[in-house]
Amino acid sequence: MTDLSGVGSTPLSGVGTARWYRPGTLELPDRPDPGSVDPEAERARFEEARDEARAGIERAREQAADRVGEDEAAVFEAHAQFLDDPQLVGDIEDAIAEETTAEHAVADRFADAIEQFEAMDGRMAERADDLRDVRDRLLRALLDVDIIDLADLPAGTVLLAERLTPSDTAGLDPDAVAAVATVTGGRTSHAAIIARSLAIPAVVGVGEALHDVPEGAAVLVDGEAGRVVVDPTDDQRAGAGGVDAPVVEGRVSTADGREIEVAANVGSRAELDPASARGADGVGLFRTEFLFLDREGPPDEDEQYEAVTAALSAFPDDRVVVRTLDVGGDKSVPYFDTPEETNPFLGQRGIRLSLAAHGNLFETQLRALLRAGAGEDGDGLAVMFPLVSQVEEVEAALARVESVAAGLASEGVDHAVPQMGAMVETPAATDVADALAERLDFLSIGTNDLTQYVMAADRENDAVADCHDPLHPAVLRAIDRTVSAAEGTDAWVGMCGEMAGDPALTELLVGLGLDELSMSAVTVLAVKERVTGTDTAEARELADAALACETREEVRVVLGLE
Amino acid sequence: MERTVEVVPEAGLHARPASKFVQTANTFDAEVTVGRAGDEKLVAGNSMLSVTGLNVEHGESVRIVAEGPDAAAALDALAELLSTPVEDEGGEDG
Questions:
Q1: Residue A352: how many CB atoms within 10 A of its CB?
Q2: A517: which strand partners?
Q3: CB distance B53–A117 less than 8 Å?
Q4: Sheet of A202-204: strands edge to edge?
């Protein structure tokens, strides 16, 4: 039994069979002497590899169509066409006829095409990625390297990887993947957040030692303790996974009767039902990025309308807070063709991007939202703008909402203006929170970005992980300023960062005066239980004590975490 | 026979429009070649690699040449495809 430690990023346990995901480790054998190559045999190998690749592409296409939509699936049609491209195939067959092995012929010809595409500007680099994808399918088939298709893993897989990208993670099937463990990564990386929303047990940042876990080993991943155990004992296995968690349905109140809404953060349609099943009081953060990422162009109005309507009907009695498109920073959308930024986290992100050009992107999203607001469960809709730093941005965004509403009215299209709010995730927003609260129905504090910006610490950088902690007094005081600024206005204040889902901090957050806490659905139960055991007056005293601290260490002591 | 048309789809002659172009070219009994308008170079219309490799953006014009029994029908279909803003209409502007 080997026991490794890392950072638990989804507080659940899972046990299964280790499968390594090692993209990009395809090594070609040396080129044999030309005389020893049998062109007929190589040609047959190439044909077989193409058949295998074709089947794999078709499977990927069906899964994408099934899970995300026909638009995303279209990229695989392009892959199939590259695979059967008469020029490429002809050139490869010519090379084979001249006694090149199939794998070298494939590698050489694709290398030329990739180089040619990369020499051009704009979208061509993306096409080069498509070519690489097709090439790798062929080479894996030719070199007999096991294809790990992330979207098609056998049940009971514990996925091990150096790192996973957000789109890798979003493609995982929660029914098949028992757990995930990675060499690198932190708790608030996007991949970790997605794993958490999918309720996949995960431990990240295990370090190089993870590489020693052999393929096929029995592995337990304990996301609560941050442990990865190879060959776990029967007792350890029994404690992991498979246990149906109890659920607290309906709103909960503190011991002295103050109602706190405990909602879920949701990043795809697939997460809606699990969030509801775990007892979430609605959605406090519906990320719309999944509609925009990993595809060739933006979703149209109807597709967005349907996604929002699906969220509203999953929570007919509760509120669904939809965040307008929040890309930029580490989430890029290739078809926007945005110029490269030297400092993307301080660049054209969030509402800044929506308000800037990019065609009718923002209008289309607002039209979809206003139409959804008039639907059957539309009363529960709320909309918020990400990365607000100025009052002017809110005013401009609200003016767009008004003009979209006027447009829909003149077309005779049913619509309703939902509750409107802003995310508070910049120091600037905390300082003008009073002015924001006067203009809006609610504020929602995004603690991941707020911590990053208050502390000037990159949330993806392990080396400054100590700095990136919302328990620093500076961050707590920024939260307190925001809540206080909204007092005396009608605006409610929620929190949708990872901090909201940490049950050890629930009393503090109630004491700080938050009305709503939104988190990964897996932590809803634990937070609800904490809320019911909290006394508001005591919580306020605790919050005051924490706000009076000068260091993170002191805060941790006050909270009983040390 | 040949025809010159402006590429209307937002994605240019890439991605889905390119994919549709190749699929459509393949359904006719005609040899289709395509190039940038005003450019002598023509590439095979049945090759995704070649068509995408032209790197034609939205708003540029292309010259489509077709030879064979179905040449006229192929030109009609391909010209229409490139003149349609979004090939799977549903919403108004996507």
A1: 17
A2: A262, A495
A3: yes
A4: A2-5, A227-230, A218-222, A13-21, A157-161, A177-182, A202-204, A7-10
Alpha carbon distance A496, B69 (integer Å): 63
10 Å Cβ neighbour count for A3?
12
Window 5-34 of B, Cβ < 8 Å to A? 10-12, 14-16, 18-19, 22-23
- Residues A426/A389, Cβ–Cβ less than 8 Å: yes
Residue A118: Cβ within 10 Å count: 14
Complex ipTM value: 0.78
Cα B15 to Cα A73, A266, B43, B55, distances in angstroms? 12, 29, 17, 11
Which B-chain residues 54-83 have CB contacts (< 8 A) with chain A? 55, 57
Is B50 within 8 Å of A296 when comparing Cβ atoms? no
Nearest residue of chain A to residue B17 (CA atoms): A78
Angstrom distances, CA of residue A114 to CA of A20, A74, A126: 27, 20, 10
Token pair in block for residue A433: 């929170």
User: Residue B49 and residue A298: Cβ atoms within 8 Å?
Assistant: no
How far is it, in rounded angstroms, from Cα A335 to Cα A561? 46
Tokens of A351: 């509402």
Residues A426 and A407: their CA atoms lie apart, in Å, by 32
- Asked if residue A76 lies in contact with residue A57, where contact means CB atoms within 8 angstroms, the answer is yes
For residues A45 and A154, give the distance between their C-alpha atoms in angstroms, rounded to a whole number: 27
Domains in chain B, please, with CATH? 2-83 (3.30.1340.10)
Distance from CA of B4 to the nearest CA of A (A): 23
Q: Which domains does chain A have, with CATH numbers?
A: 2-22+153-238 (3.50.30.10), 34-143 (1.10.274.10), 256-534 (3.20.20.60)
Q: Supply the Cα-derived Rg of chain B in whole angstroms.
A: 12
pLDDT tens digits for chain A (562 residues)? Answer: 688 988 888 878 888 999 998 876 678 888 888 788 899 999 999 999 999 999 988 887 886 676 555 666 777 788 898 999 998 999 999 999 999 999 999 999 999 998 888 887 666 666 777 788 889 889 988 988 765 778 778 888 999 998 876 667 767 888 889 999 999 887 766 668 778 877 889 999 999 999 999 988 999 998 877 899 999 887 777 666 544 456 788 899 999 999 999 999 998 887 888 889 889 999 999 999 888 877 778 899 999 999 999 999 999 999 999 999 998 766 677 777 777 888 888 998 999 999 986 678 999 999 999 999 999 999 999 999 999 999 999 999 999 999 999 999 999 999 999 999 999 999 999 999 999 999 999 999 999 999 999 999 987 788 888 899 999 999 999 999 999 999 989 999 999 988 999 999 999 999 999 999 999 888 898 899 999 999 999 999 999 999 999 999 999 999 998 7
Distance from CA of A79 to the nearest CA of B (A): 9
DSSP A115-160: HHHHTS-TTHHHHHHHHHHHHHHHHHHHHTPPP--GGGPPTTEEEE
Token output for A136: 């790798």
Q: Which helix (H) or strand (E) holds A308?
A: helix A301-314
**Which of B16, B29, B26 minimizes the C-alpha distance to B89?**
B16
